[in-house]
Amino acid sequence: MKPPHPGKACASGEARSAGLAGPPPVRVVIEGVEPEIDGGRFPAKRIAGDAMVVEADIFADGHDQLSAALLYRHQGEPEWREVRMEPLGNDRWRASFEVTRLGRYEYTIEAWIDRFATWREALEKKLAAGYDVESELLEGALLIEQAAQRAAGADAAWLRERALVLRGSAPQAARAELALRPDLAACMDRYPDRSGAARYDRILRVDVDRERARFGAWYEMFPRSCAAEPGRHGTLRDCEARLRYVASMGFDVLYLPPIHPIGTTHRKGKNNAPVCGPGDPGSPWAIGSVEGGHTAVHPELGTLEDFDRLVAKARELGIEIALDLAFQCSPDHPYVREHPEWFRWRADGSVQYAENPPKKYEDIYPLHFECENWPALWEELKRVVLFWIGHGVKIFRVDNPHTKPFAFWEWLLAEVRSQYPDVLFLAEAFTRPKVMKHLAKRGFSQSYTYFTWRNTKAELIEYFTELTRSESRWYLRPNLFANTPDILHEYLQSGGRPAFQARLVLAATLAGSYGIYGPPFELCETEAIPGTEEYAHSEKYEIRFWDLDRPGNLRDFIARVNQIRRENPALRFDERLRFYPVDNDQLLFYGKSTPDLDNIVLVVVNLDPHHPQSGWVEVPLDEIGLDPHQPYQVHDLLGDARYLWHGSRNYVALDPRTAPAHIFRVRRRIRTERDFDYFL
Amino acid sequence: MKPPHPGKACASGEARSAGLAGPPPVRVVIEGVEPEIDGGRFPAKRIAGDAMVVEADIFADGHDQLSAALLYRHQGEPEWREVRMEPLGNDRWRASFEVTRLGRYEYTIEAWIDRFATWREALEKKLAAGYDVESELLEGALLIEQAAQRAAGADAAWLRERALVLRGSAPQAARAELALRPDLAACMDRYPDRSGAARYDRILRVDVDRERARFGAWYEMFPRSCAAEPGRHGTLRDCEARLRYVASMGFDVLYLPPIHPIGTTHRKGKNNAPVCGPGDPGSPWAIGSVEGGHTAVHPELGTLEDFDRLVAKARELGIEIALDLAFQCSPDHPYVREHPEWFRWRADGSVQYAENPPKKYEDIYPLHFECENWPALWEELKRVVLFWIGHGVKIFRVDNPHTKPFAFWEWLLAEVRSQYPDVLFLAEAFTRPKVMKHLAKRGFSQSYTYFTWRNTKAELIEYFTELTRSESRWYLRPNLFANTPDILHEYLQSGGRPAFQARLVLAATLAGSYGIYGPPFELCETEAIPGTEEYAHSEKYEIRFWDLDRPGNLRDFIARVNQIRRENPALRFDERLRFYPVDNDQLLFYGKSTPDLDNIVLVVVNLDPHHPQSGWVEVPLDEIGLDPHQPYQVHDLLGDARYLWHGSRNYVALDPRTAPAHIFRVRRRIRTERDFDYFL
Fold first, then answer.
1. Which candidate, B384, B443, B421, B328, places its Cα nearest to that of A14?
2. Chain A contact for B316, CB < 8 A?
3. pLDDT computed for residue A358 by the predictor
4. How does DSSP assign A299-356, residue by residue?
5. DSSP state, A199?
6. Residue A105's closest CA among A32, A46, A38, A41?
């Protein structure tokens, strides 16, 4: 339904202080709109198919009845569509629309005094009080006649007829009865007088992504370590061969660290040694050599054709390839020669390398995003992204975005997404909370989080309550990496296999998006540089050969968890994560459900990797729609055991040597006619 | 200090999507500014002499050092003044300025990358790591030379000298030492490069009132009931005689219901009877008769000259007269005849009277604020306000502002306060929470609250936590009326004298502004129309004669409480109200303090008017700066008893028959040289 009178009136009825003239100021106030990020400066985020729920405080002086509409359109559409808002009580109103297309939608709110509803309510009260309502009926007739002028076709005539009756000489009671008929109210509601409507003074925005933006299991892997036999530099062809392995574990995204030529100048040696030894391959993040830069493939990995094959083969297996965007250069990068103006030149004539004194990263030159010819640099970096999109890449993991200007990302992401709204960007910003959030506001589809450093029950509850309940839930989508090439947390180092299992379950069920860095993860690799969370013999600086069949590996376990994720849509709804009580500080109990409660998942994780733990959980029967007087089944999808539970308090025990977690699907009892019970 | 480079850059560094050109976008982000009401749409409120504390999140990409300044000016001043902001950690910054003048101030924030501080920090780290810093010194010299160009007078030369040394041939260590000297950092900080500074994209506002806006004891009284002997219509001269009585109780504001001529058409009788009897005086809110309207004095009360005398005499006694602004008319008001277009005319040719079916208020015609000639009506109502200001009235209690357009109030209050910034308006809006808050946003200096209906411990804690800790504390100043001519709460009806005492202490100490409607309050009048909270024989409809010396009256008690209020500035700081634990649900324990903790008041109130109650309070020693190992004195200012307390847990007992509350002033132990203790 289109608004008959697109609101002309100003926002919240501000009176002109310089002289009073024209129509009287708007009386209706619209405020407290949600979602609205920083006064509308940034868009919210949603997934295609989502209901976009919008709420606002809407009220006016006095006691008049109000009506309100949520106006929305895909950006660029000339006309607003609209849906009426419903009052929730306490002057709060709500409506929603389905976001069906990718890209940007706009929305705002219009509200007006509903003179007919106001009149109708007063008429009802006066009739109840036994008043003479002759004047009321005449005033109602006028309102109906005015609506008839706004109405089209048959409605106009139908309304005029009713106005005539109200003005007529039939008994007052009969005319009043007609005036109060629901069909009249419904027709009047189609032609409201919106000439004095309040229009919210901001047009708000929501960016709509495909499902993968909120739900996906990521696997990170170094292609050069993928050779089928030790002692050889892995290639993209080896990666291709490894795809079945990755697919067998149920991953959706395969993320590769940079695949570009690696510089030789100041190349780092094994374990980040300042000088490399013969044959050391260098860090893939020291991008660029005589063989090319950000759009080239490292010759030892293969060719661009090999990459295209990898992308195509992965797609066949339901896997998307994600590339790393690390906008920095080795001293040998072609940019250094061709565009010296894109770097910072020191007073001593050298180029500024990356440093954090006393640490020096002489193998890496940062780009100078504020250089004089910054537009050329920015355009070139956009070209890099478009180049890889041209080769089938739709997901980018962005390295250290917090060390490049926010405005650059906002521009780049908007430019790319205006052409390719299905492209996703994951921000690898391990930095201060407000900076992380701000990058998400500027447009990143997903964000790395502090998850790896949140290991106790209190830490997890506090952090995930913030992520899923605070305002940041409108724009920041967490992607939980259980480990990365940079982070092997002490909890994993000391907890061994049960710790890896617990962290996998947490990552895979606390958020729709999660990832591991393999094979070290599924092989439960715990060897770190002592006293640090750095992997020993890190793949960042050397080629590793991994025995994928190492005893105790988690391949089957991970496959099971990823299957559970795919089969239970509840796990896609991060905003619906809730923590529930359990009387043991080593047990974490939480749940997620689909909005319609069709799929309910409850998870219990034993955070103690060394000892069995048990306790009484409190199931939120009310919240998940369970009858307190009926038994229900919790089906442990991990172990495939089924338990019959009654009421809210139930007992759980988890031994880390066998299973550090339950992932329960809640099944309601269905009683058949023949008194045969089953659980759905 | 004036900013050398008033920020030209755009707000938060939004990149232009349509082509990249010009200087690179601003890198610094300013967000999360507090106070900021509805994105800056409404001003905050402060009292002259207050520190206006402003906070914001300020950060940039990367690791550069930042500087920030809070810019402020009284509205109309051409130049910003500024004060540097200090980092609080977690990217939060704070600064404050003193608001000294009444009226409106503006403020905003500018922040920039502090290149010298960034350079200096890196230099320090590199020296500590033993690097060669030759290039760093040359780069520092350049920064200093650039600052010298921005510098004035001696500073410029002084800076150039230092740059020369840095470029010179002295040993590197000596030059580095000079480069790091604090005097150089201080001088550089006076001439920052703010060419790429971020300016917050909103100019925020704060309205500054005089002290009475947040601190004052109000006394409401019907002049016509002030006659010295029964059976006579009281006059303004009688009021004058009553002033000493009001002053003796320590009140600051004497608020009079409307003093204008009262209409006779449809005049209400005693106890709101639809028809009046002979001699019934009518409701003072049915304003206007042949004797005049809103700028006239009811002849039976006296003359305008009498009113002027009353204002002057009150002023001598330290009392301000507050008038009622009830923008509505009796059918006999001159406006009805002279400006029929200012009213709503019904289809049957009658004027719309006030009604809430089945209730009819035929003695009152609402004004039609949206009538065709609304500007003339609005201007006339402004004239009414200015008229009374001309007669010395600086405080108005506004009757039912929520039934008139918000825009009207915003316009009227702004118009009046632009001429008379010392004029205050109290909103009598007993309506829905968001409407109450919105009226405060639009400019009301103070607001009636739900206080009369918050009587249990849980209700009081919840409501006052909301009033003093939520965002509304920036703009809504509560004025707690313990009773009004419309509200004699059941708690008072059934609780008798101890209930009146408890509610008085609560009102007088929970908020800086409070009021009572007397003499019924101090006489502990409990007679209500059964089953309602309406006074029986309400003064709204008849003249009452009150025996001020009635036994059990609270005159001395009120005088004591008001004296305590005047002597303890802690009670002026509503935002510093905190509730503390006490293990008895009938005891409420809370405190207030001055920002410097010079004055600390702790209050315990027994909410049970019928039984003695006792319990253990927990004094927040840390919060109020008490040494847990030292005794301290709590001096009950109500009963003048002194108790020596130790540690946080202490015992209190309150018998409603003697004293339903303690108002403790906390006195610290001072140990003299001769080991003689006293308490300050």
1. B443
2. no
3. 83
4. TTT--HHHHHHHHHHHHHTT-EEEEEE--EE-TTSHHHHH-GGGSPBPTTSPBPPEEE
5. E
6. A46
Show residues of chain B in contact with A134, CB under 8 Å: 348
Scanning A511-589, the segments in alpha helix (DSSP H) are 555-567
Nearest Cα of chain A lies from the Cα of B374 at a distance, in angstroms, of 7
CA distance A511 to A507: 6
In this complex, do B374 and A39 lie within 8 Å of one another by their Cβ atoms?
Answer: no
pLDDT reported for residue B1: 37
B132 touches chain A (CB under 8 A): no
CA dihedral A498, A501, A503, A507 (to 10 degrees): -170
- Shortest distance between the Cα of A238 and any Cα of chain B, in A, equals 37
Read off the pLDDT of each residue in A325-345 and give the average, rounded to a whole number. Answer: 98
Contact B12/A41, CB-based, under 8 Å?
yes
pLDDT of residue A198: 98
Average pLDDT across chain A, whole number: 94
Quick one: pLDDT band at residue B677, thresholds 50, 70, 90? low
Q: Which amino acid is at B150?
A: R
CB atoms within 10 A of CB A627: 11
Render pLDDT for B533-558 as a digit per residue (tens, 0 to 9).
999 999 999 999 999 999 999 999 99
Single-letter amino acid code for the residue at A12? S
Longest dimension (CA), chain A: 107
Residues contacting A5, CB < 8 A, separation 6+: A193, A194, A195, A197
Interface of A with B in 419-478 (CB under 8 A): 432-435, 438
- CA count, 13 A, side-chain hemisphere, A369: 22
Active site residue B399: yes
Indicate the pTM of the whole model.
Answer: 0.94
> Cβ(A344)–Cβ(A366) under 8 Å?
yes
State which amino acid sits at residue B61. Answer: D
Residue B219 structure tokens: 């006394």
A357 confidence band (pLDDT: 50, 70, 90): confident
The mean pLDDT value for B94-123 works out to 97
Q: How far is CA A477 from CA A44, A213, A250, in A?
A: 11, 8, 21
Cα(B254)–Cα(B519) distance, integer angstroms: 12
HSE-CB for A596 with a 13 A CA cutoff = 4
Question: Is A428 among the residues known to form the active site?
Answer: yes
The rounded distance, in Å, linking the Cα atoms of B668 and B293 is: 58
Q: How far is residue A346's CA from residue B308's CA, in Å, rounded to a whole number?
A: 78
Q: Is beta strand A661-671 parallel, antiparallel or unpaired with respect to A677-679?
A: antiparallel
- Which residue of B lies nearest to A137 if distances are taken between CA atoms? B347
Confidence of residue A121 (pLDDT cuts 50, 70, 90): very high
Closest residue by Cα to residue A57 from A10, A83, A91: A91
Note the pLDDT of residue A672: 66
